[in-house]
Specification:
Pfam families: DUF34_NIF3. This is NIF3-like protein 1. InterPro entries: DUF34/NIF3 (IPR002678), DUF34/NIF3_sf (IPR036069). There is one protein chain. The two termini are about 35 Å apart. The protein has helices spanning about 15-25, 60-65, 90-100, 110-115, 120-125, 160-170, 200-205, 220-225, 245-255, and strands at about 10, 35-40, 45, 50-55, 70-75, 105-110, 130-140, 150-160, 180, 190-200, 210-215, 230-235, 260-265, 275-285, 285-295. The protein is built from 9 helices and 15 strands. A hairpin with a 7-residue loop joins strand 7 (about 130-140) and strand 8. It has a 6-stranded mixed beta sheet with strand order 7-8-10-11-12-9. It folds into 2 domains: about 10-115 and about 240-265, 3-Layer(aba) Sandwich (Udp-n-acetylmuramoylalanyl-d-glutamate--2,6- Diaminopimelate Ligase, Chain: A, domain 1), CATH 3.40.1390; about 115-235, 3-Layer(aba) Sandwich (Udp-n-acetylmuramoylalanyl-d-glutamate--2,6- Diaminopimelate Ligase, Chain: A, domain 1). By secondary structure, it is α/β, with parallel strands linked by helices. The longest helix is centred in the middle third of the chain and has 12 residues, at about 160-170.
C-alpha cells in the first residue's frame, strides 16, 4: 500500500479516467487490444480507493471486496473476447457480475503502458540501468518515434550472460528464471532486446545478444539460440508485475494523494517452480543407504 492518508477525499471517476488517459493515451494501444474503462457504474462514482493488479482473478476480486475498493486498474483487460452473457458459468463473467453488483469500476491500460516512456517495457529494460547506454523502441509508434513496443538496449560495456541472469532475478524479485544459451558465441552481452509479456511478435528477427521477455514458444527459442541470441524467460506476468509498484507511487501523486492506492497482494503468476521432497535408495558397493534429496520440477 502506498503511504498516503487513511481517509482520502476521493476524486470523481471521470477525472480519474482522464488522468489515466493523460498518462497513457489510449491511441497508443495495439490495434487488437481492449483498453480503457471496461466497467462503469451507472451512478456518479467518487473514487477513494484503487486496487492495482496485473490480472483480475477471482482471488484479486475478493481482495478488492475485502478492501472496499471503488476501482480496479488491471493491466490485462478482464473483458477481451465479446461476452454473450453475464452468468456464474465462467470465472470472468462472475467477476464482471460482482463488479456491477458492488459498483466497482474497472480500467485496463495494457499495451498503452507498454508503449509509453516510463512504462512497463522501460521498467523491464531498467534491469540494466547502471550499465545502459541507450534504449529505443523496437516497434516504433507511427505518430511518435519516442513511443512504441519493446526496447532495444545497448549496454555501455559487455556483461556476461550469468551477470544478466542475476540482474533479471534481482529486478523481478524471482528466485528462478529460464535461460537458453546461444550456440557458438562467447556468452557476452552488449545488446538486449526487451519485451514484457509474450514478446516474440516484437522480438522476432531482431538482432541482439539477448532476448528478455516473459514467454516464448519452444521453436521460437530454438530459432533464436541458433541465430546467436540467448533467451531469458521470466513467465508472462512476472515480466510485467513489478511495474505496478512504480505506477502506484506515480498514480498517488497524479491524484494529488486524494485516493488510496493498493497493489494487489493476491495477484501472482499462475505458473510456479515446485520442489518435491523425495526419499530414494542409493545403491553403492553392495550396500543400500536411504537418503533424502530434493528435485526441481
Amino acid at each position: 500500500m502506498t503511504d498516503i492518508q487513511n481517509n482520502p477525499t476521493g476524486i470523481p471517476l471521470n477525472k480519474v479516467v482522464d488522468i489515466l488517459k493523460n498518462f497513457a493515451n489510449l491511441s497508443l494501444a495495439d490495434s487488437w487490444d481492449n483498453v480503457g474503462l471496461l466497467i462503469e457504474p451507472t451512478e456518479i462514482k467518487i473514487i477513494s480507493h484503487i486496487l492495482l493488479t496485473n490480472d483480475l482473478t477471482e482471488n484479486v476480486m475478493q481482495e478488492a471486496l475485502n478492501l472496499k475498493t471503488d476501482m480496479i486498474i488491471t493491466y490485462h483487460p478482464l473483458i477481451f473476447s465479446p461476452m454473450k452473457s453475464i452468468t456464474s458459468s465462467s470465472w470472468k463473467e462472475k467477476i464482471v457480475a460482482k463488479c456491477l453488483e458492488h459498483k466497482i469500476a474497472v480500467y485496463s491500460p495494457h499495451t498503452t503502458f507498454d508503449s509509453i516512456r516510463g512504462g512497463v517495457n522501460d521498467w523491464l529494460a531498467s534491469t540494466f540501468e547502471n550499465v545502459l547506454e541507450n534504449s529505443i523502441p523496437i516497434k516504433v509508434n507511427v505518430n511518435n518515434s519516442d513511443y512504441g513496443f519493446g526496447r532495444l538496449c545497448t549496454l555501455k560495456n559487455k556483461i556476461s550472460i550469468d551477470e544478466a541472469v542475476q540482474r533479471v532475478k534481482k529486478h523481478t524479485n524471482l528466485e528462478h528464471i529460464r535461460l537458453a544459451r546461444a550456440f557458438q558465441t562467447d556468452g557476452l552481452i552488449k545488446t538486449v532486446a526487451v519485451c514484457a509479456g509474450s514478446g516474440i511478435s516484437v522480438l522476432k528477427n531482431i538482432s541482439a545478444d539477448l532476448y528478455l521477455t516473459g514467454e516464448m514458444l519452444h521453436h521460437d527459442v530454438l530459432d533464436a539460440i541458433h541465430k546467436g541470441t540467448s533467451v531469458i524467460l521470466t513467465n508472462h506476468s512476472d515480466s510485467e508485475r513489478g511495474f505496478l509498484k512504480i505506477f502506484a507511487s506515480n498514480l498517488t501523486n497524479m491524484l494529488n494523494k486524494s485516493v488510496l492506492v493498493h497493489v494487489s497482494e493476491n495477484d501472482i503468476d499462475p505458473l510456479k517452480i515446485l520442489y518435491l521432497e523425495i526419499d530414494y535408495l542409493l545403491f553403492q558397493s553392495d550396500e543400500v543407504r536411504e537418503i533424502s534429496g530434493r528435485i526441481s520440477t
